[in-house]
Amino acid sequence: MQPLWSQQAVPRAADIISTVEFNHSGDLLATGDKGGRVVIFQREQENKSRPHSRGEYNVYSTFQSHEPEFDYLKSLEIEEKINKIRWLPQQNAAHFLLSTNDKTIKLWKISERDKRAEGYNLKDEDGRLRDPFRITALRVPILKPMDLMVEASPRRIFANAHTYHINSISVNSDHETYLSADDLRINLWHLEITDRSFNIVDIKPANMEELTEVITAAEFHPHQCNVFVYSSSKGTIRLCDMRSSALCDRHSKFFEEPEDPSSRSFFSEIISSISDVKFSHSGRYMMTRDYLSVKVWDLNMESRPVETHQVHEYLRSKLCSLYENDCIFDKFECCWSGSDSAIMTGSYNNFFRMFDRNARRDVTLEASRENSKPRASLKPRKVCTGGKRKKDEISVDSLDFNKKILHTAWHPAENIIAVAATNNLYIFQDKVN
Amino acid sequence: MEVQKEAQRIMTLSVWKMYHSRMQRGGLRLHRSLQLSLVMRSARELYLSAKVEAHEPEVPLPPVRSPDPRLHQSREAEAVAEAAPPDGEQPSPEPMDTREAPRAEETPALCAPRPAKVSRKRRNSSLSDGGDVGLVPSKKARLEEEEEEGASSEVPDRLQPPPAQAEGAFPNLARVLQRRFSGLLNCSPAAPPTAPPACEAKPACRPADSMLNVLVRAVVAF
């Protein structure tokens, strides 16, 4: 397989993208940024008169989801940065998504309006009230077409349920409930009810000084509405079944790989922290991302992952420097392809990595306008880890650690990927039919 | 010896990061604080084990040393470490990546650990107080504390978060940081403690020695 990737770069002004998510059909792509804005892109329909524009994503809607807030009781500023966006499955003409910052989750309805009523009796076309004495006849308003307008309106606001910072939200397969997770607790919500949520996991110790691990990510199983997983800062994953008890502090399954003593180092503990966990579309596997690798786990085997892929093993000897410049705390996400045959995650220097699970091959690609022209295929990149540097290779010391790809998304059905590189969004498509 | 220096550098860096993270927008990040404290603890254990192995002879100190607090900290550290759930594995002494740390960044003034010597001269109060030797405020410090209590409205805005957050994740740390750093914060470093300003004796700042000791003690306390 040699896919040719064509590129469409979408520049963003000033704001760093903090989350990227395709909807269930793949026609819409939502991004959230540090400024609390959500920008939704829509895929262009196939158009014979403009064959090149097929499959291009253009801006569909932009709205301000969250504003900065101030918690007066704790004297804390609450950032407006969008941590996660999750789409609800589409049930009617409108689209719904959940977006969250550190403390508050909002349900947004995105709907199109392409008709307008004209001919009101009580007000004229400008909206001004008509003088009642001038109304001499009654007319029925008629609907007339108008330019398409996309409106986003907040339908629910789920607030005040989290003491710590929300890191994940996940919509259940029952389409009625969803979970939200912060560092120590996971809450279960009903999409219709905003003033109540159920706490289903609580790992807060009685004495905070005994705290040893926090929750880093959580997700519902794609098909079993009673099952969810959450990952921890110690590199473990717990699978919980909500049927077994109301409070799922006791896990049904516990996934942990025994540590390799030969690779133990000073920073071992913090690089084993899992930054993302994602179920495969099949529901049979899950994938976890820690600082240096991605691991694929079979849900039926808790003792160790079935696959481990090194993302940037050459950084293992640089951990001290990465601690100094805070890069060691970066939280990379990962994603599955639609068929679960490939997985993708980001790295530094605007590199991202793709692993073909069937062919057991991996490739490093770069998201940058300087190094690739639009519609040209991407050239695989290579990092020189030692010895003589070959032509076109990049040495580890030349990597730009400010250019990090933390958020990537894969179209649910096709080979289209979205890659967020700081404040730029790149969309790559596979041209092979 | 190099391992000790490196461990101390990492400890100082960790504490600085911990302090700095409280000032960031969005408040204290629990996960980040936990990770920093883990590194801090590993560095401390590495430092202590390296010190035990070193068996150094007595070496004359530069004038601004306060060795006793470190001893006290070690004892307290061990007590705290026992209280916390044990890690189960000992960190091996080897793993420090001293290659990557540029030598230029090391701070000679702060990175010289020494065994306790009761007769060492200290800039401030006598050693006969025992107990919290490192935390006994100097005259300067006491004055600042009185000023602080009397004029809380003059405390800069950015100092407000710690007390309100004290009931959050790490109350002891919050209180200690707030008490000790109220004066220091006005001349806090813009860069990481690799170039510590406390060494340039600014009148409003605390002496370098007690800053480090207090920082280390504060972290150990939680």
Please give a structural write-up.
Chain A: Keywords: Repeat, WD repeat. Chain A: It comes from Ailuropoda melanoleuca (Giant panda). Chain A: InterPro entries: PP2A_PR55, PP2A_PR55_CS, WD40/YVTN_repeat-like_dom_sf, WD40_repeat_dom_sf, WD40_rpt. The complex is a heterodimer of chains A (433) and B (222). Chain A has helices spanning 268-271, 319-324; strands at residues 5-11, 17-22, 28-33, 37-43, 57-64, 69-71, 76-78, 84-87, 95-100, 105-118, 142-158, 168-171, 177-181, 185-190, 193-202, 215-220, 227-232, 237-241, 253-255, 276-279, 285-289, 293-298, 307-310, 334-336, 342-346, 351-356, 361-366, 382-384, 393-395, 407-410, 416-421, 424-430. Chain A is mostly beta strands and 433 residues long. Chain B has helices at residues 2-22, 30-54, 67-83, 139-150, 161-165, 171-181, 208-221. Chain B is an all-alpha fold and 222 residues long. The longest helix of chain B has 25 residues, at 30-54. Chain B has 7 helices and no strands. In chain B, helix 1 (2-22) runs antiparallel to helix 2, helix 3 runs parallel beside helix 7 and helix 6 runs antiparallel to helix 7. Chain A binds chain B through residues 73-79, 81, 102, 163-165, 183-184, 208-214, 216, 233, 264-270, 273, 317-321, 323-324, 326, 329, and chain B through 10, 13, 17, 25-27, 29-32, 34-35, 38-39, 42-43, 46, 83-85, 89, 91-92, 95-97, 99-101, 160-161, 163-165, 168-172, 192, 222.
